[in-house]
Amino acid sequence: MLALVLLIATTPPLVDVAPLDPRWRLDIRYATKDNFFGRRVYPAARCLLRPSVAQRMKRAQAWLDAHHPGLRLLFKDCYRPHSVQFVLWNAVKGTPKSRYVANPHGRTGSIHSYGAAVDLTLADADGRELDMGTAYDHLGPRSQPRFEARYLASGQLTPAQIRNRRRLRRAMRHAGMRGIRNEWWHFNEGTSRTVRRRYRRLDIPFSAVAPRGATNKDQPPGATNKNEPPGARTTAGPASQPYRPRKD
Asked: Which domain CATH number covers 66?
């Protein structure tokens, strides 16, 4: 019994999604400087999620397999340590961009810090990122699903781009994930209240969760993994080919 209690106490509450489906791609922008504020804030390009959320990603992929064979998930951001949320917030507070970043001083903060939110898009069978009309982390109104009809009517979004967004949303809704009004790429496992009741906010390092093919048997939670790969963009399989639309 004591051994079981110790195992539960020391087991990280997150899982690495990379081993779950070899077709999935990772393009974790905060592990690079290629993000909206130009700083690398993750030590490694990894997608960690609560186990229940990871299973929802498998259901979303199954829906894609049934309805749009060849498409696969491409992850942009997953678990985000609470301390990193302060870095993002400090970069935008007092600016119009603050509406896109959760205030870590608030009651909930970012759902990413609970391991219950995911930013993602779709890629085709060759790993090419589908055209969603804006780049990931484009902090502007064209990224907001609530304005899609307006931009479609004005020609600033095309029918094909809207179709791609809808495919992503349908896959995620089938898996039980909830989208938000101002980012086409962001999905939560539930409402803020539901997530707060179900989980606690986390600030554990990425190295506390063993990557694929490794073990943390001799590494206590919070220890630094000296063999952790650098923060270059990585994939669960062959390199993805991100779509780069013209910036406004």
From this structure: 3.30.1380.10
